[in-house]
Amino acid sequence: MSELEASLYALYWNNNISVAVITMISYEYILQLEKEVKFVWERQRSVMTYLYLAVRYFGISVVMFSATWGGLVYIPEAVSYGVFLFMQWGFSAYSCLTKVILIWRLYALYNQSKPILYVLMGLLIPIVALYIAVDVFLWSRPSAISIQEIAITSNIKYCTAFFHVGPMLAIYTSIPVLCYDVLLVVLAITLLVKHLKERKELRMKPNTYIVLIVRYHVIYFVLNLAVQIFSAILWANLSTEVMNVILLFSNTAPFIIVPRLIISIWETHANDSCVHVSTTFEDCVCWTSPPPLEQHEMEFCIDPDNISCV
């Protein structure tokens, strides 16, 4: 394959993947818009609603820049490098936001334990610093990565990135992030195991909301693990097909799944009627009416609204 044919082939793959990304993100946004209006815009603001708005709209902006960059829309080389940096720093910021969401969920599950909150937020600081260091050292240095304009014809031009560093550095720097993700999911699973044991001793059904939130923690963990692995292997010398398939996953899955999981908890809770609210915090613990066959059992759930104590 000649150099011109290779450039055309890469542009063909890039544009097809970009159209697929824009279509999937737009379709997902339309699907969730009615629920977003109901559970976000028509209700009192809380910490989780602000986190939702951040991951939803900041995520969409990052994805759209990423989809249009690289050939779908012509961006001059001088501007293209700045857009590329925004994309990469944006992906890191989005990942940090998802970790804050997990921390806030754990804080609610552990009865708003301040030590849990302070420890997890304290451990998050070096993770954020690591993200910044990686973005500066790997993505922001011309010696590590460069942007070059490819001219196929006088009217067909696009910019692409060239990696000058192997994948090992990206792999090493992803290890602390993965360890932090493991800590978050272990805390969630530990709470679930303890809860299941207590309910079994009392011969009561497990609380639906604890099971639901822990399940979402596991999904977050698997998603973050996949993103970290894919981000690392992007620095390897991959074929055009493999790289674009990885980019399709990285540019869609996190930005669809994270907001959807937040909305799904609110939607699940919307059908419950709280008779007692014990806290003013977001995702507060409340007591709901028990199922008809278990009137002796008072289930607690995770309330997605910022409700005042009674």
From TrEMBL:
It comes from the Eukaryota. Keywords: Membrane, Transmembrane, Transmembrane helix. It holds the Pfam family DUF6533. The chain crosses the membrane at residues 12-30, 50-75, 81-104, 116-134, 170-193, 214-236, 242-263. Residues 18-60 form the DUF6533 domain. InterPro entries: DUF6533 (IPR045340). This is DUF6533 domain-containing protein. It comes from Suillus fuscotomentosus.
